[in-house]
Amino acid sequence: MSVVYVALPVALLLGAAGMYACIRCIWDGQYEDLETPAVRILIDDQKSATQSNEWPSK
Amino acid sequence: MTLFEQSVAPETPAGDGMAAVASCAVKRAAVIARPCVHCGQSTDCLASDDAQQVFCCSGCRSAYELIHGWGLDEFYALREQLRPASASAVVSGPDRYSQFDEPEFLGKSAPRVLADGTCSVELAVQGLHCAACAWLIENVSSSIPGWLSVRVRMSDHTVRLVFDPERTKLSAIAELMGRMGYQLAPFDRSPDEHIAQESKRLLAQIAIAGFLAANSMWIAVALYAGEFSGVVFEYRYFLGLMGTALGTVAVVGPGRTFFVGALASMKTRTPHMDLPIAVGLLVGTVVGIINAIRGSGHIFFDSLAALVFLLLIGRWIQFRQQQRAARAVDLMLRITPRHATRIADDGRTELVLAENLQLGQRIRIAPGECVAADGIILNGETTIDRSLLTGESVPVQSHRGDCVAAGMINVSAPIDVEVRAVGRESRIGRVMQSVESATMDKTPIVQLADRIGGVFVVVVMSLAAVTFAMWLPTGIGEATTHATSLLIVACPCALALATPLAIAVGLGRAAKCQVLIRDGQSLQKLAKGGRIWLDKTGTLTEGRQRVSSLEGTTYGLELAAAIENKCVHPVASAIVREAELQKLPISKTATLDKALPGGVLGTVDGEGVAVGNLELMRSQSIDVATIWWERIDACVRRGEAPLLIAVDGVVCTLLGLSDPLRKNASETISKLSGEGWSVGVLSGDHPAIVARVCEQLGIRKEDCHGGLTPEEKLTIVQRSRRGGLTVVMVGDGANDAAALAAADVGIAVRGGAEVSLQAAPVFVSSGRLTTIHNLMVGARRTNRVIYAMFAVSLSYNLLAVVLAMAGWISPLAAALLMPISSVSVLAIVLGARTFEEAS
């Protein structure tokens, strides 16, 4: 049972890593526009070599 | 009456379109209505025509050819798949885009140069309807070399462009977008960074609180399991400490906002939901920490973390709604043009910002352009579309000395105007000011949850005190524990979640039925009956003139159509359409001699033809026989506008023009009356026509008002609000803006969504009147769901309070009751049928 002294903090650390990733996404603005990405997935990719989907960050 | 004034149009795209339609009508071919391939508007054409080649106007044809030429036909498939959309026609000259290259024009949204030499710019875009628009814009970027990328944001109607200034100019991009029907515009204010930051901060707090709540739950589960299986003290102590640490972080971190709210409520001495929450959190944390360190007694950490998490979610939903409501964009700027063509003293013209115009300066307005300022016509003779201000469905003949107002559209010929009023001083500006003050006037609706919350606060706090006093004889430790349990368990978590959640779900479902609702309060107000005012033109009727009766010979109609074919005018198109539907041959050799107020004169194959109203016939000294007088009277009694056709000075045909009622209009009216609404009509149209329409719909005569200006509509709406009834106004988003804003709930049924939602909290985009009835039913159901949830969450709280006061509440019971009440609230909201899905 003494493994709990190690397992619990490790579990919390893993969870905290997930939380950190989530907060990064929020500050990146991923949750600001919930409409367009939902329909964008319906659109097939085509020839889009000329178009980058990346946006330069501020 | 100005119903029959007509004009000769220069070669405009719309004129071409009419010729294209007319060319479809060949003798004895079956004429049917098909949707335009591009915009879907019903268009008359031959049955033998290819359904893929039907266009309502040349604008749609060229848009289709552009899209087709780039191989982007999938746009249409995608549009069908996602939502029926309508394309807006845009009239524009090519040179108006050159200003996109000037930083002064762009102002706050001037392009930023990135590290690699490319430019990035963020612009507002108008005309976005659905996902297919976003797709089209994002895929078109490859057609201009140097236009590197574009990203559309549907939620706030903006685009971000990246382009290479060496290879292309912003004006080229703006022009291309304009040709597709999407107008780019610089932001008129700096984008609201503050609100975006606040939204992100709240979301981040929810993420933190969620993490802490989930993990403390696991630890709590371990502890409860330990209670039953007899855990060693050492581990229980460790788990308790860890859980308490998580709970404390949740309270001190994301939970801080409740303490801030509680302090504010204490300062202003108003009981607020934050107060019992803050006290509960504070006492729970302190007692929990002491008990955790002592290693005995109740520790509340899991309840505390879950409490913070759930309450924050409620907060966030509320914040999103307020933010939507607060997005007050200047309506005036969207309606009137931002730029004007000023005529300098030496006769040259220059483009200036409309707000920089001075009184007494002269501006030139090209045909198809919107007037930028109030003024008086100095030169030129034209027809003016005044529908924005007056709601008149027919453009009005105007000449030297006549007044024009900002927001009106110059239809046929260029005019020079001397500026008399600009911006907020202009007529439309004053209407908008009254819109603003009408919005401010509204008494803020106290949310039901807040009202109950106020009582709740006092009750829970005093119950906690009573519990403490009751248990004091058995020891101070016991008393503190029970009082704290009560504070935590009685926390109005479900209650705080209920209203915002039910409203958010209601708004989402309404949007699926093509009803856009700006704020949730409208839903609550629509749930009860009251007084509902409807606009006539375009709301109850289709807003399109149609020939509804014909007396005399069809030969007259045939000749009239031949002449009217040369005109751009709603009456002209009604006549041509009727001739096509009657399969009459329309001569191509007709000449249009003169367009006068009240009608037109022309020649067809050597015969002089006059088409117009009585005054026109009189002015041309055409004798109208008595038999026609009776027929004209009958026409007016039917609610139709009479139009005479005379061939070689002899009247031979009488046409009755009317604007037909929309489908389901009378059905909707009777359903609304059945729901407890008293229905009335407010219209700018002629009182006789309005009375006739009301008679058809079964609306009482004293509730029908015709011939009203927008200002008078506003007065009537304000007056009816004084009675304390809920007043709903249904109308056009643009010219009824003031009345829509003054009503308790304004429902816009026409006009662009962006503009309409400024003035009216509700926008119906389905174009069906029955949707309004569905909206009322949905609102009532949503309200019922809210009350049901109050009942459920309050009974949970009541049960919990009773258990806590009796001292029976164990940590296990507390941990179970809290989430169960939240989950049942969620289930009620999501399971309830509120809005009927659009069929």
Count of helix runs of chain B: 30
Structural class of chain B: alpha+beta
Total strands of chain A: the figure is 0
Cα gyration radius of chain A (Å)? 19 Å
Which spans of chain B of ≥5 residues are poorly predicted at pLDDT below 50?
1-29, 82-94, 325-333, 439-446
User: What gyration radius of chain B follows from the Cα positions, in whole Å?
Assistant: 33 Å
DSSP summary, beta strand count of chain B = 29
Shape of chain A: elongated
Element-by-element helix/strand order of chain A: HH
Report the span from N to C terminus of chain B: 41 Å
Q: Count of DSSP helices of chain A?
A: 2
Helix content of chain A: 40-55%
Largest inter-chain interface? Answer: A-B, 33 and 41 residues
Question: What value does the average pLDDT of chain B take?
Answer: 76
Distance between the termini of chain A: 49 Å
Quaternary status: heterodimer
- Helix percent of chain B reads 40-55%
The shape of chain B is elongated
> Helix- and strand-based class of chain A?
mainly alpha
What summary fits the major beta sheet of chain B?
7 strands, mixed
Structure description:
Chain A is mainly α and 58 residues long. Chain A has two helices and no strands. Mean pLDDT of chain A is 75; it is low at 48-58. The termini of chain A are far apart. The longest helix of chain A is centred in the first third of the chain and has 25 residues, at 4-28. With 839 residues, chain B is α+β, with helices and mostly antiparallel strands. Chain B is 49% helix and 17% strand. Chain B contains 30 helices and 29 strands. In chain B, the strands form six sheets. Chain B has a seven-stranded mixed beta sheet, with helices on both faces. In chain B, strand 28, helix 28 (753-759) and strand 29 (762-764) form a beta-alpha-beta unit. The longest helix of chain B is centred in the first third of the chain and has 37 residues, at 193-229. Chain B starts with 12 loop residues before the first helix and ends in an 8-residue tail after the last helix. The interface between A and B is large, with 33 and 41 residues.
